[in-house]
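Hi P.,

Sorry for the delay on this. The queue was packed all week, but I finally got your sequence through. Input first:
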Amino acid sequence: MTSLNFDTIQLGDTLPPLALPAVDRTMLALFAGASGDHNAVHIDIDYARRAGMPDVFAHGMLSMAWLGRLLTQWVDQRELRQFGVRFVGITQLGHRIVCTGRVVDKFEADGERRVRLEIQTANQYGETRVVGDAVVAL
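Then the structure:
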């Protein structure tokens, strides 16, 4: 996390990217335990195949958690005012995800100086998996 100044932040500025290790079965099992989301499509290959998938795949909320980490490595979590995402693709086993963000607006609200960010995850092929936005106070 760095010290940021509203006056020096410019539209188009980017957050330091967050690169993650390849998604594997251990990661999915650990996230299932930590989150309480034990949906079999994320941890049981036979179940996933019966559901028409080639294999298990990452929880959508795992991707959102990674985007949360992107944000909180940029600003203190207490400065987060809004955070939302839309899932646009499945994160498969073996995907190496990179989370990115950029400043798209600067404004004042409720007596605070804030910036709006566009955020996303993409795999090693450049395919977007999750898109979203966030508002942080600076």
